[in-house]
Amino acid sequence: MKLRRWICFLLCLVLTVCLCAPALADGELFFVAVNDTIPLTLSVFPTYSGGTLYVPYQVFDSQPCGVTPSYNQAKQTYVLLSRTRQMIFDLAAGTVSDESGSVSTANVLYRGGILYLPLTFCASHFGLKTTMLESAGGYQILRFTDGSEVYDDSLFVEKAENLIAYRVRQNQSGSQSPERPTDRPNSGSQGTQEPPAAEKKPATVYLAFTGSETMRASMAALETYKLHGTFFLTEAEILADPSLVFELLAAGHSIGITAGEDDEDLSDALTRANDALCALTCQKTLLALLPAEAEAPDSYCVFHAPSSPVSAADAAASETAHLLVCSENTEADLYTLFSAEARVLQLLENADRT
Q1: What percent of the chain lies above the pLDDT cut of 70?
Q2: Neighbours of 322 (CB within 10 A)
Q3: Which one, 151, 187, 205, 349, has the greatest CB density within 10 A?
Q4: Is residue 222 part of a domain?
């Protein structure tokens, strides 16, 4: 009788462990989305305890919808802060306080030395909605939304599939750079560190954007990384979508002009594009983007697109400054540059580029 009870107990224990363990896809990657972007990829995963979903503290490195994390190692506090609200976790006392001074028990976990926070408890305090999604390849996606998202969950997963596949390939090829160091909660004992390699000077990359149909997506990607770029438009693109021009300027980006594929007289094409820009905004630009080896008119600051396409990985690995012309894969390109710690600059009249 006792033996059967012990067997039942062990079976229940095994079942509980299986149910609490997160379902992992091959490659062990976990994606964190904020509205319509995926700013963060992790290799640590959510876990359930007592029916509550807990997430590793690194999830909030994505700064979801303006919520910023901070860790004070001396005081053993972990803080989540927005413009109007805050949560202060006293890890030593096991309490959490909010902006009103109200104090309650902090139901946090430690797994493998990593701090885990109750997801719904934290997100709801800042008015955020969270959903756990799954990509077509079986990868988990935690999505934070604040009501300003464009895509619903199903369409977002569909739109994000290419980027997720790209990051999975990058991880499998071993090309991801280590995360940049930050002050974080203790993660257990530290292993023996290898001697630091000789410091390599970061690559310098200037960004140029073409193709009006993808420019709004490029703007969103730049916003994720708090960057500005220079967007080159043809006369036809300016006339077809004048609101795009104002959106670019309002976001702090620079406007340049370029010629269409069918334009034989490049100088005339630039003049017409600049006139269209002036008629719309009452200002002209000196920035122009032309094909490689094209003759540069004296009245413009002309940048030449590389004769052979330059990938973000190539630009990030170069010891000389590069001009990277982006269109369809801006978010993936920026992720590559960020991972390589490249110095990404806005293309201006005095840019030193190759």
Answers
A1: 82
A2: 20
A3: 205
A4: yes
